[in-house]
Write a structure and sequence with these properties.
Blueprint (H helix, E strand, L loop, with lengths): L3 E7 L4 H9 L7 E8 L5 H8 L4 E3 L8 H14 L4 E4 L8 H6 L4 E5 L11 H8 L3 E8 L9 E8 L6 H24 L4 E3 L2 E3 L16
Parallel strand pairs: 1-2, 1-4, 2-3, 4-5
Antiparallel strand pairs: 5-6, 6-7, 8-9
Helix pairs in contact: 1-6, 5-6
The structure holds glycinamide ribonucleotide.
Protein backbone atom coordinates (compact mmCIF):
# COMPACT_ATOMS: atom_id res chain seq x y z
CA UNK A 1 0.00 0.00 0.00
CA UNK A 2 1.34 3.44 -0.89
CA UNK A 3 0.25 5.97 1.66
CA UNK A 4 -0.90 9.40 0.55
CA UNK A 5 1.54 12.11 1.64
CA UNK A 6 -0.35 14.49 3.92
CA UNK A 7 0.42 18.04 5.05
CA UNK A 8 -1.36 19.36 8.14
CA UNK A 9 -1.97 23.08 8.71
CA UNK A 10 -2.39 24.20 12.32
CA UNK A 11 -2.58 27.38 14.38
CA UNK A 12 -2.67 26.11 17.95
CA UNK A 13 -3.28 23.21 20.28
CA UNK A 14 -3.18 20.52 17.60
CA UNK A 15 -5.41 17.93 19.26
CA UNK A 16 -6.89 16.98 15.88
CA UNK A 17 -3.35 16.70 14.53
CA UNK A 18 -2.66 14.33 17.44
CA UNK A 19 -5.66 12.21 16.46
CA UNK A 20 -4.31 11.97 12.90
CA UNK A 21 -0.83 11.08 14.19
CA UNK A 22 -2.31 8.26 16.28
CA UNK A 23 -4.41 6.99 13.37
CA UNK A 24 -1.42 6.70 11.07
CA UNK A 25 0.27 4.34 13.52
CA UNK A 26 -2.09 1.67 12.24
CA UNK A 27 -0.25 -0.26 9.48
CA UNK A 28 -3.25 -0.20 7.15
CA UNK A 29 -3.82 3.56 7.42
CA UNK A 30 -3.69 5.00 3.88
CA UNK A 31 -2.14 8.37 4.81
CA UNK A 32 1.14 9.53 6.29
CA UNK A 33 1.82 13.04 7.60
CA UNK A 34 5.01 14.33 5.99
CA UNK A 35 4.82 17.95 7.12
CA UNK A 36 3.10 20.07 9.76
CA UNK A 37 2.93 23.80 9.12
CA UNK A 38 1.84 26.37 11.69
CA UNK A 39 1.20 30.04 11.02
CA UNK A 40 1.78 30.75 14.74
CA UNK A 41 5.17 30.18 16.39
CA UNK A 42 5.53 28.15 19.59
CA UNK A 43 2.13 26.42 19.58
CA UNK A 44 1.45 23.04 21.19
CA UNK A 45 0.72 21.39 17.84
CA UNK A 46 4.33 21.95 16.76
CA UNK A 47 5.57 20.11 19.86
CA UNK A 48 3.18 17.24 19.10
CA UNK A 49 4.62 16.94 15.57
CA UNK A 50 8.17 17.02 16.84
CA UNK A 51 7.40 14.38 19.48
CA UNK A 52 6.10 12.15 16.69
CA UNK A 53 9.21 12.76 14.57
CA UNK A 54 7.26 14.65 11.89
CA UNK A 55 8.93 17.67 10.22
CA UNK A 56 7.27 20.82 11.54
CA UNK A 57 7.71 24.36 10.26
CA UNK A 58 6.43 27.80 11.13
CA UNK A 59 5.32 30.14 8.35
CA UNK A 60 4.37 33.21 10.38
CA UNK A 61 1.68 35.12 8.49
CA UNK A 62 2.75 38.31 10.28
CA UNK A 63 5.96 38.35 8.25
CA UNK A 64 4.05 38.73 4.98
CA UNK A 65 2.68 41.91 3.43
CA UNK A 66 -0.35 40.20 1.94
CA UNK A 67 -2.45 37.07 2.21
CA UNK A 68 -1.38 35.99 -1.27
CA UNK A 69 2.34 36.31 -0.41
CA UNK A 70 1.74 34.13 2.67
CA UNK A 71 -0.27 31.56 0.73
CA UNK A 72 2.37 31.43 -2.03
CA UNK A 73 5.04 30.42 0.49
CA UNK A 74 2.67 27.93 2.10
CA UNK A 75 1.96 26.40 -1.31
CA UNK A 76 5.63 26.24 -2.27
CA UNK A 77 6.62 24.66 1.07
CA UNK A 78 3.91 22.00 0.79
CA UNK A 79 4.92 21.17 -2.78
CA UNK A 80 8.60 20.93 -1.86
CA UNK A 81 7.65 18.33 0.77
CA UNK A 82 5.73 16.33 -1.84
CA UNK A 83 2.39 16.83 -0.10
CA UNK A 84 -0.50 15.24 -1.99
CA UNK A 85 -3.36 15.86 0.44
CA UNK A 86 -3.76 18.81 2.76
CA UNK A 87 -5.62 18.83 6.10
CA UNK A 88 -6.54 21.97 7.99
CA UNK A 89 -6.69 21.08 11.68
CA UNK A 90 -7.53 24.19 13.65
CA UNK A 91 -5.88 26.42 11.04
CA UNK A 92 -7.42 29.82 11.71
CA UNK A 93 -6.47 31.74 8.55
CA UNK A 94 -8.60 32.22 5.48
CA UNK A 95 -6.94 31.10 2.25
CA UNK A 96 -6.86 33.07 -0.98
CA UNK A 97 -9.00 31.75 -3.79
CA UNK A 98 -5.84 30.96 -5.81
CA UNK A 99 -4.54 28.73 -3.01
CA UNK A 100 -7.88 26.95 -2.68
CA UNK A 101 -8.05 26.37 -6.45
CA UNK A 102 -4.52 24.93 -6.38
CA UNK A 103 -5.52 22.27 -3.82
CA UNK A 104 -9.05 21.66 -5.18
CA UNK A 105 -10.44 18.30 -3.97
CA UNK A 106 -7.13 17.56 -2.23
CA UNK A 107 -7.79 19.78 0.78
CA UNK A 108 -9.87 18.99 3.89
CA UNK A 109 -11.01 21.04 6.87
CA UNK A 110 -12.67 20.15 10.16
CA UNK A 111 -15.24 22.48 11.66
CA UNK A 112 -16.99 22.10 15.04
CA UNK A 113 -20.61 22.27 13.86
CA UNK A 114 -23.02 20.44 11.62
CA UNK A 115 -22.33 22.50 8.50
CA UNK A 116 -23.81 24.43 6.78
CA UNK A 117 -25.08 25.61 10.20
CA UNK A 118 -22.81 27.74 12.39
CA UNK A 119 -19.94 28.61 10.08
CA UNK A 120 -17.24 30.84 11.52
CA UNK A 121 -16.02 31.50 15.04
CA UNK A 122 -17.59 31.05 18.52
CA UNK A 123 -19.62 28.11 17.22
CA UNK A 124 -20.54 26.57 20.55
CA UNK A 125 -21.65 29.85 22.18
CA UNK A 126 -23.90 30.51 19.18
CA UNK A 127 -25.31 26.97 19.29
CA UNK A 128 -26.22 27.51 22.96
CA UNK A 129 -27.71 30.97 22.26
CA UNK A 130 -29.96 29.48 19.58
CA UNK A 131 -31.17 26.66 21.85
CA UNK A 132 -30.00 24.02 19.38
CA UNK A 133 -30.46 20.49 20.74
CA UNK A 134 -28.10 18.52 18.48
CA UNK A 135 -24.82 19.87 17.16
CA UNK A 136 -21.67 18.12 15.99
CA UNK A 137 -18.71 18.40 13.66
CA UNK A 138 -18.00 18.19 9.95
CA UNK A 139 -15.06 17.27 7.73
CA UNK A 140 -15.39 18.84 4.28
CA UNK A 141 -13.38 19.66 1.19
CA UNK A 142 -12.23 23.27 1.21
CA UNK A 143 -13.84 25.84 -1.08
CA UNK A 144 -13.17 29.58 -1.33
CA UNK A 145 -16.10 30.48 0.93
CA UNK A 146 -15.22 29.91 4.61
CA UNK A 147 -16.38 26.61 6.19
CA UNK A 148 -18.12 25.44 3.04
CA UNK A 149 -17.51 22.68 0.53
CA UNK A 150 -18.48 19.08 -0.18
CA UNK A 151 -19.10 17.21 3.08
CA UNK A 152 -17.08 14.01 3.63
CA UNK A 153 -18.35 13.05 7.09
CA UNK A 154 -20.26 14.38 10.08
CA UNK A 155 -20.84 13.36 13.70
CA UNK A 156 -23.88 14.40 15.74
CA UNK A 157 -23.39 15.40 19.38
CA UNK A 158 -26.17 16.22 21.87
CA UNK A 159 -26.35 19.57 23.62
CA UNK A 160 -27.00 18.87 27.31
CA UNK A 161 -28.76 20.93 29.98
CA UNK A 162 -26.26 23.13 31.78
CA UNK A 163 -23.74 23.05 28.94
CA UNK A 164 -21.30 25.92 28.70
CA UNK A 165 -19.42 26.72 25.48
CA UNK A 166 -16.45 24.94 27.08
CA UNK A 167 -18.28 21.74 28.07
CA UNK A 168 -19.93 21.55 24.66
CA UNK A 169 -16.62 22.21 22.88
CA UNK A 170 -15.03 19.34 24.83
CA UNK A 171 -17.84 16.92 23.87
CA UNK A 172 -17.68 17.92 20.20
CA UNK A 173 -13.87 17.73 20.23
CA UNK A 174 -14.00 14.07 21.28
CA UNK A 175 -16.15 13.41 18.22
CA UNK A 176 -13.75 15.43 16.04
CA UNK A 177 -10.88 13.20 17.12
CA UNK A 178 -12.75 10.16 15.80
CA UNK A 179 -14.23 11.84 12.76
CA UNK A 180 -11.11 13.36 11.19
CA UNK A 181 -9.06 10.13 11.01
CA UNK A 182 -12.13 8.35 9.61
CA UNK A 183 -12.75 11.02 6.94
CA UNK A 184 -9.09 11.19 5.95
CA UNK A 185 -9.03 7.42 5.60
CA UNK A 186 -12.01 7.55 3.23
CA UNK A 187 -10.41 10.26 1.08
CA UNK A 188 -6.82 8.98 1.11
CA UNK A 189 -7.89 5.43 0.22
CA UNK A 190 -9.99 6.71 -2.68
CA UNK A 191 -13.11 5.20 -1.14
CA UNK A 192 -14.89 8.51 -1.65
CA UNK A 193 -14.45 11.32 -4.15
CA UNK A 194 -16.11 14.56 -5.21
CA UNK A 195 -18.63 14.37 -8.03
CA UNK A 196 -20.63 17.47 -8.88
CA UNK A 197 -19.82 19.11 -5.55
CA UNK A 198 -21.10 16.10 -3.58
CA UNK A 199 -18.92 13.45 -1.93
CA UNK A 200 -19.86 10.05 -3.28
CA UNK A 201 -18.67 6.49 -2.89
CA UNK A 202 -19.58 5.71 0.70
CA UNK A 203 -20.01 1.99 1.10
CA UNK A 204 -22.12 -0.02 3.52
CA UNK A 205 -24.31 2.87 4.61
CA UNK A 206 -26.75 1.63 7.22
CA UNK A 207 -30.13 3.05 7.98
CA UNK A 208 -29.86 4.43 11.51
CA UNK A 209 -32.73 5.41 13.80
CA UNK A 210 -33.15 9.15 14.27
CA UNK A 211 -31.64 10.71 17.41
CA UNK A 212 -34.26 12.55 19.47
CA UNK A 213 -33.41 15.37 21.83
CA UNK A 214 -35.16 15.59 24.21
CA UNK A 215 -35.45 11.79 24.14
CA UNK A 216 -38.74 10.07 23.36
C1 LIG B 1 -11.20 22.35 16.57
O1 LIG B 1 -12.35 22.33 17.38
C2 LIG B 1 -11.55 22.63 15.13
O2 LIG B 1 -12.76 22.03 14.73
C3 LIG B 1 -11.68 24.14 15.13
O3 LIG B 1 -10.62 24.58 15.94
C4 LIG B 1 -10.33 23.57 16.92
C5 LIG B 1 -8.86 23.25 16.84
O4 LIG B 1 -8.48 22.41 17.89
N1 LIG B 1 -11.62 24.67 13.81
C6 LIG B 1 -12.35 25.69 13.37
O5 LIG B 1 -13.10 26.32 14.09
C7 LIG B 1 -12.16 26.05 11.92
N2 LIG B 1 -13.22 26.87 11.43
P1 LIG B 1 -7.10 21.60 17.82
O6 LIG B 1 -6.01 22.64 17.49
O7 LIG B 1 -6.93 21.04 19.20
O8 LIG B 1 -7.23 20.56 16.77
Amino acid sequence: MTRKRVGVLISGRGSNLQALIEAQESPDYPAKIVLVLSNVPGVQGLARAEAAGIPALVVDHKRFASRSDFDAVLDQTLKQAGVELLCNAGFMRLHTEAFVRGWWNRHLNIHPSLLPAFKGLHTHARVLDEGVKITGCTVHFVRPEMDSGPIVAQAAVPVLAGDTPESLAARVLEAEHRLYPHALRLVASGTVHVDGERVVGMTQMREEPPIFSPPI
